[in-house]
Design brief:
Blueprint: E1 2-10, H1 14-25, E2 30-33, H2 40-44, E3 60-61, E4 64-65, H3 77-91, E5 95-96, E6 101-107, E7 110-115, E8 118-127, E9 134-135, E10 149-151, E11 166-170, H4 174-184, E12 190-193, E13 203-204, E14 207-208, H5 209-215, H6 229-234, H7 251-256, E15 260-262, E16 265-269, E17 272-275, H8 279-303, E18 328-330, E19 336-341, E20 345-346, E21 365-366, E22 369-370, E23 375-377, H9 394-410
Parallel strand pairs: 1-2, 1-8, 2-5, 8-23, 10-19, 11-12, 11-19, 12-15
Antiparallel strand pairs: 3-4, 6-7, 7-8, 9-20, 13-14, 16-17, 17-18, 21-22
């Protein structure tokens, strides 16, 4: 199959479909190429119990929004897949499924896109393939004893697949804490290797934290207003869970239930895991940043006409850390049978034959406008605003980028 079109959109998740909708609104000819099915990553690369971290009232895309009877609830993965499928039907997006892009190259004033189902020539490309394609596995994983099973969040589905024994969860962001909490509840002893993390309550002063982040304008902060945009884009996801119970999912909850905290995993030698001595400082910094955020919320609430209706100010117990956390653990003595590598993700641009990647493999771009004429990217953290990686954050970003893209096409 060969063909020509104005724009190729790579990826049929929520960001790619939103792009398609906005292109259609401007009557711009395009095709959406998807390596699997619509919402492929949500279908195949998530664990069974996962729910969205944002409440249903925030589940909206250009021209489309949640219409159910539980606005304060959180979508399960099957519900989210149905939501995105519904959006694909609503937009009548020209999606070609089971079409994996293998190469994108510049050709003349446009691009040549090659896939397992043929090739296309286009004037512009929108990359909507996501930021979480490949789990980031630290180097010490290569020294893990062979009798210990290592699982990434893409491979983990439920605690049923774990053999009896202890579990070392490496990473303490949203994924690490959710999986540690779930696995701990099935009776496995848990050890958590804690690195940099963002502590955040699910509810605050009687409202979901997303209510406050939205109302106080925190989520709308633009990328060109952020002091250190590179750091902001690399921050781990906040310690949230898609449930109103508990009020805050944090390290204290896990240690209350018997989990052991250690510092960042630094290495493994002869079956002994070695950890950083910075645990106390890392936790103290996360506490400090959370309280700064709550201060910002309180300042906004103070000026709000609804201030009297909000619950009183509150603060959360600081993260409890032992005076002398273990710097080494004999994995055999601790009966560690499984390691969960909750150490983040990175995008996969192995198919991109255009010189726009930095030395770490990330696309060089200015608010989604890539460093190549007519090439764009959507759906990455803090792309144009702090809310960019959330489903509801896509609309403002895609409107900005499609306006830029339309101008680019007009000038061709």
């Amino acid at each position: 199959m060969t063909g020509t079109t104005d724009v190729i959109v790579i990826g049929a998740g929520h960001a790619g479909l939103a792009t398609s909708y906005c292109l259609s609104q401007r009557s711009i000819e395009h095709i959406v190429l998807e390596r699997g099915e619509v919402a492929n990553s949500w279908r195949n690369e998530r664990w069974d119990s996962l729910t969205l971290l944002t409440p249903n009232w925030q589940s909206r895309l250009p021209g489309y929004k949640y219409e159910g009877d539980d606005p304060d609830g959180f979508m399960s993965m099957p519900e989210l897949i149905r939501f995105i499928e519904g959006y694909a039907d609503f937009t009548k997006a020209p999606v070609q499924t089971e079409t994996e892009v293998t190469s994108v190259k510049q050709k003349g004033n446009g691009y040549k896109v090659i896939s397992n189902n043929g090739e296309w020539h286009c004037k512009a490309v929108m990359i909507a393939s996501g930021a979480c394609n490949i789990p980031s596995i630290p180097k010490p994983a290569g020294d893990m004893p062979k009798n210990i099973v290592g699982l990434t969040p893409h491979q983990y589905k439920s605690a049923d697949q774990l053999e009896p024994g202890g579990v070392l969860v490496v990473g303490a962001s949203a994924t690490g804490l959710q999986l540690a909490d779930e696995i701990q509840q099935t009776g496995h002893p848990i050890t958590i290797a804690v690195g940099e993390h963002v502590r955040m309550p699910r509810t605050y002063r009687g409202k979901d934290i997303q209510y406050w982040l939205h109302k106080a304008g925190i989520l709308d902060e633009r990328y060109d207003e952020v002091d250190d945009i590179t750091r902001a884009r690399r921050l781990p996801s906040p310690q949230l869970v898609g449930s109103l119970d508990p009020k805050i999912l944090d390290l204290n909850r896990l240690t209350d239930n018997g989990a052991t905290l250690v510092g960042r995993l630094m290495g493994i030698r002869d079956g002994t895991a070695q950890f950083s001595g910075s645990l106390r400082n890392v936790c103290a910094l996360a506490d400090l940043k959370m309280n700064r955020m709550l201060n910002t919320i309180d300042e906004w609430a103070e000026q709000s006409e609804d201030n009297e209706a909000f619950d009183p100010l509150e603060r959360f117990e600081q993260t409890r850390v032992e005076k002398a956390p273990s710097l080494t653990i004999d994995l055999d003595d601790r009966n560690i049978k499984t390691v969960i590598w909750a150490t983040g993700f990175r995008p996969d641009y192995g198919w991109l034959d255009v010189d726009i990647l930095d030395r770490k493999g990330y696309i060089r771009h200015d608010g989604g406008v890539a460093n190549a004429p007519g090439m764009y990217v959507i759906g990455l953290p803090v792309l144009r605003r702090r809310k960019s990686s959330f489903i509801h954050g896509t609309e403002d970003d895609v409107n900005d980028l499609i306006a830029h893209l339309a101008t680019y096409l007009d000038n061709q």
